[in-house]
Amino acid sequence: MEFVQNRVDELFDEFVQIRRRIHQRPELGGKEFETTRLITEKLTEWGIEVEDLGLETGASALIRGAYPGATIAVRGDIDALPMQEETNLPFASENPGVCHSCGHDLHAAYALFCARILHENRDKLHGNVRVLFQPAEETGDGAKNMIEHGVLTREPRPKCLVGVHVGCDMPVGSIGLIKGPSAAGMDQFEVTVYGFGGHSSRPQNFIDPILSASLLVAQLNTLVSREISPFESSVLSVCRIHGGAANNVVPESVTFGGSLRSFTPEVRKTMLEAIERTCRLHCESMRTRAELKILSGTAPLVHDEKMVDEIAEAARETIGEEKIIPLKYPRSGSDDFAEYLSFIPGVRFRVGSATVEPETKVGAHNPKIIFDEEALRIATVVTCRYIFNSLR
């Protein structure tokens, strides 16, 4: 399948320019209008079918193979972050306070690159490929929205999903793979503890929500050690708390919020139930009342083991065994790629983007991060080889 590598090499500079254009005009989740327009224009220019999903932003493209067979989906997220870029790149963000410091510009260009290569070689495909250009990953609702608009249920239905994420802690030219849990699920929560306010000098006349909330925060921080097996893991953090406006007045209520991260659906379920039970029963014992809100949620990202082996084989055939890095632990960050995996198996492998230059290693979501564009070539070659291996 040298035609894959050869065509990727021929088109690489063109897609670097597409990536830089997306980088220069970043847009926040749900507002990716210009990015969506560029994507659909390019797909149409290349003769690729753009599916009408009824989405405000984001897109889906369908490549129909010459022969019958299964359908594989490819996902690239396209939204940016609310940060001021500090890279001084000649194609740095022109939108104040918005930049692609998570690498989604590369992901969007990668999905376009895959679509182009696969479409040009559709005569070799025994099946179809649906390419998803997903908005709003950073806000956690983009994947759910695309699922609601039928990307997994309209015909031809995909049997599995593949995607990538750039890795600034891995050398450029490499990919990282892990079986099972790959990234944490993330749930944000907010708790309001209601009491009965009063003057600080007369404690017998009020019900103290500050004391109740303080003890509740401490109690919540024991849940991981007492609800979860020592061979499992979870992270619960309370990150903000507010109550009262004067030094001699006990308020009516206190509000605090935080996040829960978990690596399996079972641990996530156990912890969410424990948070609810602890808030309710603790406040009942303190004569206060707790109102718990789960503000958003992303499932743990758990890779399909067979697909991991198949991606590894595609990588061996293209970049070589020595470029495959077995990842020892899952990442504690989250990605709504996991939402699709509640319905179909999938893998989101990591693609190295770090060089000897320190600005390539400062970490994602850092305004100074620079991703090496060679990652775009590697991601496309491995993904396309995997798809041609699978649909033949």
> What value does the average pLDDT take?
97
> In which range does the helix fraction lie?
25-40%
* Number of E strands: 16
The ordered H/E elements are HHEEEHEHEEEEEHHEEEHEEHEHEH
Distance between the termini: 12 Å
The poorly predicted ranges are none
Strand order of the largest sheet: 1-2-4-3-5-16-6-15
Biggest pleated sheet: 8 strands, mixed
Shape: elongated
**Which structural class fits the helix and strand makeup?**
alpha/beta
Question: DSSP strand (E) fraction?
Answer: 25-35%
Radius of gyration, in angstroms, nearest whole number = 24 Å
Number of helices: 10
What does this structure look like?
The protein is α/β, with parallel strands linked by helices and 392 residues long. It is built from ten helices and 16 strands. An eight-stranded mixed sheet has the order 1-2-4-3-5-16-6-15, with helices on both faces. Strands 10-12-8-13 form a four-stranded antiparallel sheet. A two-stranded antiparallel sheet has the order 7-14. β3, α3 and β4 form a beta-alpha-beta unit. The longest helix has 23 residues. The model has no long low-confidence stretch (mean pLDDT 97).
